[in-house]
Amino acid sequence: MEQYDVIVIGAGHAGVEAALAAARLGGKVLLTTVTLDNVAFMPCNPSVGGPAKGHLVREIDALGGQMGLSADEACIQMRMHNTGKGYAVHALRAQADKPFYHNLMKKIVENQENLDLKQLMIDEVIVEKNEVKGVKAETGEVFAAPCVILATGTYLRGKIVYGEVNYDSGPNGTRAPQKLSASLLHIGVKLMRFKTGTPARIDARTLDYSKMEPQYGDAQVYNFSFLNKVKTREQVPCYLTYTNPTTHKIIRDNLQRSGMFNGYVEGVGPRYCPSIEAKIVRFADKDRHQLFLEPEGLDTNEVYVQGMSSSLPADIQIEFMHTIPGLEKCQMMRAGYAIDYDCLDPLQLKASLEHKQISGLFSAGQSNGTSGYEEAAAQGLMAGINAMRKLQGKQAIVIGRSQGYIGVLIDDLVTKGTHEPYRMMTSRAEYRLLLRQDNADLRLTPLGQEIGLVNSERWSSFTAKRDLLERTLFSLGQTYVAPTEENQKKLAELGTSAIRSKISLLELLKRQQISYAKAAQAFGLPELPAVVAEQVEIQAKYDGYILKQRQEVAKALKLENKLLPESIDYRSIKELSTEAAEKLATVRPVSLGQASRISGVSPADISVLMIYLEAKRRKEEQ
Ligand SMILES: Cc1cc2nc3c(=O)[nH]c(=O)nc-3n(C[C@H](O)[C@H](O)[C@H](O)COP(=O)(O)OP(=O)(O)OC[C@H]3O[C@@H](n4cnc5c(N)ncnc54)[C@H](O)[C@@H]3O)c2cc1C
Questions:
Q1: Is the shortest distance between the CB of 31 and ligand 1 below 6 Å?
Q2: Is the confidence at residue 621, as pLDDT, over 90?
Q3: Are residues 424 and 467 in the same domain?
Q4: Distance 594 CA to ligand 1 centre (A)
Q5: Does 464 share its domain with 413?
Q6: The pLDDT of residue 349
Q7: Which range marks the domain in which residue 424 is found?
Q8: CATH of the domain at 438
Q9: Ligand 1 centroid to 51 CA: how many Å?
Q10: Protein residue with its CA nearest to atom 31 in ligand 1
Q11: Given a cut of 90, is residue 271 above it in pLDDT?
């Protein structure tokens, strides 16, 4: 029997980050997958990032994860979204060359020291006395390890549905594990049934792009990775077209044949990624819906029709596509479908992503009820880190809600749970002004360094940037502009108002019209790298708001630091509402802060717990 430190079941976006993190932290790692041909496979949209998801990718990169670097290399179009809005919602989104991304990640995994990649169907997680011992494959082989990370995505008891067609399968016809769910239920893991869907893939040669609006990438070269490795990039356009009332009529007339409505789909689907059928029903007043035609890669004719996920029969999908401008003669290469799959109820997990009752069992990705490559990769990274820290006897790493979107994601899952595929959104982050995508490295790279995932190249580039930023902010705060005639003239040329008394350059930079570049030209300041100049401007202009948000964080931290003993019998505290006692006993929050975020636990219940803790403290003192 081969012995490992960590075994990862699943080489999707979660599994790859988990395995790389554990191996890079010195663990002997086995990474398994149903087929080697789907390592870091993108079964759905050929893109990485966008609002909130782009923030996650930047945070993964800042901590020393892989997704950001690979997405930059596989990128065939990059855009910074929401530039017309505040910096908190600026977000990068890359169109990715799917086959290239898969090959690149597979190569990285295959060449990672301490990591074995195997094509193996895992049927069983071996647990003795609530401790993980290893896994058993369908071949009968047993692999031993004290830590197992579940990253099974949308595969567990996968069932594909479109129209009357339905069969057991993972995405794109890969085999679906049928036995692992039973093994998980047997060891006491609670499972849920979720669903997600994807649109058809159509042949680019059969499209009339002249009837669509091209969407080009940004001229400026952006990267997810703070290592900023890609300097130039060949970009291809996407295309925008719309459905119309004829499209909607065909769909409406055939709703009963959709997997969503004929009962073949059992699982709960994603609210924020609805199928075209669901959109037609939910937004019946709309006479058109946007569709983005996204190339799946440079060396394929497959085009992904974003916004048109469907589980209607293939013939109906073709019929309604032929009503859409530019798609009148399109050839469908793959039909859209829905997929049902098993996933875990994340309320069973600690914030380290380890199971509360089964020591050494971690879970990450879609198997925790989330949806999205980025959400999966973020969880995978944390599960890989924490599995190794468990083995090294170190405290688990839990990122706070004021430190990162990764913290918001995991805290939401393990504290509130989810009844549908959970997708990250900026509105979920109460401190989003602090959690911008532009400062993910300032927030998290020192932690990545402490963990041991930040290599010397990243550390030296980060410290150079941080130190230059700090020096610049300090010197701008110490450099004053006097209300001389010459300066008033400069201010007028900068399009800003005159000053009555001397003002620091940092104060001046708070003015909307003044960028660092303009101030540098006017007052002879040193040129700065673009990423540092951007930080200087943001920190100057948002200073007041950032300060206010930091005060809110400090207030909330008071409750976060009020720890709750693991052994509390919530049901014996009569003053708590029945619902609160039930929920607290299920989630077993580590702090009053976490308790306050559990739905059904009221501020009154929190006061009861505060009194309980105070009484307990006094008694112990006596
Ligand atoms: C049809 C479809 C539509 C989707 N639509 C969207 C969408 O609209 N928006 C969105 O954000 N996300 C969508 N997704 C989800 C997105 O693909 C996933 O969020 C992401 O791939 C999850 O990554 P993961 O690593 O958790 O799992 P996956 O990428 O699913 O990888 C799971 C891995 O586990 C392996 N595996 C599973 N069971 C076993 C076993 N027993 N033994 C060995 N290996 C095993 C598989 O081989 C695979 O490598 C969709 C996915 C699918 C399939």
A1: no
A2: no
A3: no
A4: 29
A5: no
A6: 98
A7: 2-40+98-154+177-197+340-451
A8: 3.50.50.60
A9: 20
A10: 12
A11: no
3-class DSSP state of 33: strand
Question: In a mutational test of the pocket of ligand 1, which residue from 32, 37, 44, 185 has the highest number of ligand atoms less than 8 Å from its CB?
Answer: 44
Same domain, 569 and 604: yes
Whether 366 lines ligand 1, by a CB cut-off of 6 Å, is: yes
Q: Give the DSSP letter of residue 591.
A: B
Question: Where is average pLDDT lowest: 28-37, 259-268, 303-312?
Answer: 259-268
Is 198 in contact with 332 (CB distance < 8 Å)? no
Instruction: Choose among 151, 149, 125, 150: nearest CA to 136.
Output: 125
Residue 225: which of 59, 100, 382, 384 has the closest Cα? Answer: 59
Tell me: do 359 and 402 sit in the same domain.
yes
Residues 432 and 503 reside in one and the same domain: no
CA 308 to chain centre: 22
Report the side by side order of strands in the sheet with 361-363: 115-119, 29-33, 6-9, 147-150, 361-363
Say if residue 163's pLDDT is above 90. yes
Distance 503 CA to ligand 1 centre (A): 55
Quick check: pTM over 0.85?
Answer: yes
Do 35 and 148 fall within a single domain?
Answer: yes
Instruction: Indicate which atom in ligand 1 lies nearest the CA of residue 309.
Output: 8
Cβ of 339 closer than 6 Å to ligand 1, yes or no, is: yes
Classify residue 502: in a domain, yes or no: yes
- The residue-averaged pLDDT of 511-524 equals 94
Per-residue pLDDT, 272 = 80
**Which of 548, 572, 598 is the endpoint of a domain?**
548
Is any ligand 1 atom within 6 A of the Cβ of residue 12? yes
| Residue 622 confidence class, pLDDT cut points 50, 70, 90 | confident
CATH code (residue 576)? 1.10.150.570
Tens-place pLDDT, residues 40-55: 999 999 999 999 999 9
| 571 domain-assigned | yes
What distance in Å separates the CA atoms of residue 353 and residue 360, rounded to the nearest whole number? 10
Q: Is the CB of 349 under 6 A from ligand 1?
A: no
Please work out, in degrees rounded to the nearest 5, the angle formed at the alpha carbon of residue 202 by the alpha carbons of 198 and 205.
Answer: 160
On the question of pLDDT at 102 being above 90, the answer is: yes
Q: Specify whether 423 is located in the same domain as 498.
A: no
Choosing from 366, 422, 423, 425 the residue with most ligand 1 atoms within 8 A of its CB, the one to mutate for a pocket test is 366
Residue 121 lies in a domain: yes
Q: Is the distance from CB of 353 to CB of 375 less than 8 angstroms?
A: no
Kindly state if the Cβ of 237 falls inside 6 Å of ligand 1: no
Find the angle CA(167)-CA(172)-CA(175) to the nearest 5 degrees: 60
144/32 same-domain check: yes
Report if residue 494 sits inside a domain.
Answer: yes
Which atom of ligand 1 is nearest the CA belonging to 156? 38
Give percent of the chain with pLDDT exceeding 70: 100
- Ligand 1 contacts CB of residue 372 (under 6 A): yes
Domains held by the chain: number: 3
